[in-house]
Amino acid sequence: MLICGGGCAGIAAAVSAARQGCRVALLERWPTIGGMATNALVNGWHRSDREKVVINGLVEECVQRLYAEGLGWVAQVPRFPHAHETHWFEPEGMRIIWQRMLDEAGVRVFCNIVAGEPVLKDGQVHAVLVDTKEGRRAIKSRIFVDATGDGDVASKAGVPFDFGRSSDGLVQGMTLIFALAGLDYEAFNRADAGHIERVWEQMKALRGRGALPPFNEANTLHFMRNQPRGIYRFWNLLPVNGNPLDEEELSRLTALARERLLAYLHYWRKELPGLASATIEQTGFGLGVRESRRVRGLKTLDRAMVLGAAKHADAIGHGVWMVGIHDPQGSGHTTHSDRKTQQLRLEPGTSYHIPLGMCVNNVIPNLAVVGRCASATHEALSSVRVQTHCMIMGEGIGTAAALALESNTSLPHVDIPRLQRALKSAGVYLEDVPRDPDARDA
């Protein structure tokens, strides 16, 4: 089995398949595994339906391994479990834990290699070409998993895909996570209580005149009000918009986000208490791309399914996150800011099913997709794209692949009840599964 992409979805697929006896190779374009979670500093997980945790399996195992190391690599949120967000983790710690899990399972890991053209034969992928330091090679396999995030392998193999929202074809906005060091916590505590709000209002006025770049208002105010000791990571403050499939444009946008960080920092060092000596500790390897290709599968997850807590006979796990769209125009606004006035979240105690059908297709039966390139509408993808949900897809497909190989069947025709039993045995929360009306009793 060949998995193209070593982010959280690809790792989950690799570990779950290898643990069931598959020979697995994983390709990753960056120097280390982990994707956005490790290389781009996206270190928050969403696991709760706001009453109880419903995303377990490999996700829970990762959390317990982080705790067991005893180095402060993971923290439970204060409102647990009454918020969708459940844990924060240290990217460096997660990088180590995931590498251990891959090594223990016997997965062969090849970093610094980009998955190239798929080789098709008789309607299936026969191999994937890669360029190595020793020349071009073809990696053969019986089952292939596209975990590239952008659906690169699937699109090259001819599987249809959608891109952008229906109104104008734009995808969700991107952001760059960064960390600051050199914060003076005592100076922050001594500041006038209203100073932060006055600075925030001034920032909005300066932005309106073009003297400061765009920013997410709610996140910016939160970070300005809450300065911890030591290194501080900032989310969603460097919004940019464009086409993440255009390499030159993506390079330009990444550089633009870093330049915008300098504009913020120069201003904050003059105006914000505690930041007079702040320095940039780190920025992510790349932008947080939230949406590009959405590869069409047997099923397409949509907004009604998400917000209606829809259940599926081919469920491989549960999803809980809201319809959280980052403005495709690049303003920095998110629908998360509107959650009190719009019905964008599921009711507490409810969750939707993530179906196997959004990861498999009827064009190339031995090719699956996992992660944010799976089959969903623009709105539904904004929910199912978060890391824990991508890991549910990965664990489901990795397990399905092992069963398909064992029974000599294709991924779209894997035995669903058997797959669901295997996932439950591995600790995946999987409840309220409706009976398939097309299934026949044995």
Q: What distinguishing features does this structure have?
A:
442 residues, three-stranded antiparallel beta sheet, five-stranded parallel beta sheet, alpha/beta, 2 domains
The CATH C-level class name of the largest domain: Alpha Beta
Shape: globular
The count of DSSP E runs of length 2 or more, i.e. the number of strands, is 18
Main sheet properties:
5 strands, parallel
- If you consult CATH, what is the topology of the largest domain? FAD/NAD(P)-binding domain
Can you tell me the number of structural domains?
2
Walk across the major sheet and give the strand order. 6-2-1-10-18
Beta-strand percent range: 15-25%
Low-confidence stretches: none
Helix share bin: 25-40%
Q: What radius of gyration results from the CA coordinates?
A: 22 Å
The number of helical runs is 13
Structural class: alpha/beta
Alpha-carbon distance between the two ends: 30 Å
Task: Name the CATH superfamily assignment of the largest domain.
Answer: FAD/NAD(P)-binding domain
CATH architect. name of the largest domain: 3-Layer(bba) Sandwich
Mean pLDDT: 95
Task: Describe the protein.
The chain has 442 residues and is α/β, with parallel strands linked by helices. The protein has 13 helices and 18 strands. A five-stranded parallel sheet has the order 6-2-1-10-18. It has a three-stranded antiparallel sheet with strand order 3-5-4. Strands 7-8-9 form a three-stranded antiparallel sheet. β7 and β8 form a beta hairpin. The longest helix has 25 residues. It is globular and about 70 Å long. The model has no long low-confidence stretch (mean pLDDT 95).
